[in-house]
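Reader question, answered in our methods column.
A reader sent in the components of a multi-part assembly and asked whether the whole thing could be modeled at once rather than chain by chain. We filled in our standard form and ran it. Here is what they sent:
COMPLEX SIZE: two components
ENTRIES:
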Amino acid sequence: MSGHNRTAVSKQPPKTRRIDGIATDLGTREFLCTIAEWLRREDVLNSTVATVELVLAEATNNIIEHAYTGNAGPGVFWAELSLLESDLEVALCDLGRAFPEGLLPSGDLPDLDVALEQLPEGGFGWFLIYSQTKSVHYTRETGQNTLLLSFELGTDQK
Amino acid sequence: MRLNSRIISNVNVVTVKETRIDAAVAIQFKDEMRAITDEGPDRVVLDLSEVGFVDSSGLGAIVAMKKHFGTEKTFELAGLTHDVAKVFQLTRMDMIFTIHDSADPFTAQAAG
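And here is the structure of the entire assembly that came back:
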């Protein structure tokens, strides 16, 4: 991009950061705020920070509701963030239950063409995750779920 | 969860005095909304101008309120910030709600 101050003649190694969270609603909040703070400090655009925060909120809510449901105590999760030249990659990991059959859920938007009393109050999470990311990959290895999410950093203003 | 209710010209303008409506407060939001709107005007305007973040749990809680009011009360939204408006657009919930740019016209009537 012209007018950009970061003239990387030799390629910089990606900036990385690991952030840990506790699988409770308030733990998720703290986790998301820490990530947003770090991204802002690294000069990531506000609109991109908002997108990343929304997607990670949906993905961690899913960990709490499904991966760790029925557990005695709250589980843990963590994100490994890598800030590349034009992308942000986030590996979101937990030690909870695997996705059924090792497959990610579908991300269809719930039908809104229904009577008022049948309007959906949920089912938007995976739609938001897929629609706001460049790619989503899931792996399960030795008791660990890893959701690899990639985002375009974007160049628009504000 | 702090909600501020002002009844002006027979409209209940409820301002959310929090920066987030997320999974941590979704149930509380519904409970307190019900309590604060139980009595009073049949028109409720939810002022979201101080809210910078809504996830699908928060969105679901707002939808739940619309269903709660049913045909008995009108439930409208106002003052959506950029990132909150985006969640409504992405999920097409902007087609389901009447959304005002600001709650100011409803509260300004007090002076006139």
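What stands out: Chain B has one domain: 3-108. The radius of gyration of chain B is 13 Å.
Send us your own complexes using the same form.
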